[in-house]
Amino acid sequence: MSDKEAVFKQIFQTNSKKIYHLCYGYTGDDDAANDLLQETFLKVWQNLDKFRNQAMISTWIYRIAVNTCLTYLRSEKRQAKDELTPEIADSKPEDYSPKNEQVALLYKCISKLEESERIIITMVLDELPYPEIADISGISEGNLRVKIFRIKQKLTELYNQYERL
């Protein structure tokens, strides 16, 4: 195994779960999220030699993933397909604990948010530090805190609407 392969393997193991969550937050679809995860890490592999350590590697990978997801969403809209977000919770015969249902409902609510809100809340759920989220999303930390507060309010409203159904 070359040095590059070893480094890449470590990067993948450290970041793949978070990047999958990010992609799932954008698509609400397991297959699409896995495709975008693979595409993101293909780009990471292809550009690993160009990474210059100016930012944290996780920030760099998130940026690649965000751009990959946004490109995917734009191309989906251009093709005027139905939204590719079938509700996974309804179609997977998993063990239905109340916690699993709550998580599925949370992702369902997240999928209703605007694109920029989805990425921010996904990073919050992945417990990224606020300065890193601000860096990735290109907004000030103060503005980010306001946005997160508003996104949480929106999510609470959406969640409560579903709870009443």
TrEMBL record:
SUPFAM superfamilies: Sigma2 domain of RNA polymerase sigma factors, Sigma3 and sigma4 domains of RNA polymerase sigma factors. Keywords: Sigma factor, Transcription, Transcription regulation. Gene3D superfamilies: 1.10.1740.10, Winged helix-like DNA-binding domain superfamily/Winged helix DNA-binding domain. InterPro entries: RNA_pol_sigma-70-like, RNA_pol_sigma-70_dom, RNA_pol_sigma70_r2, RNA_pol_sigma70_r4_t2, RNA_pol_sigma_r2, RNA_pol_sigma_r3/r4-like, WH-like_DNA-bd_sf. Residues 12-78 form the RNA polymerase sigma-70 region domain. Residues 105-155 form the RNA polymerase sigma factor 70 region 4 type domain. Belongs to the sigma-70 factor family. ECF subfamily. This is RNA polymerase sigma factor.
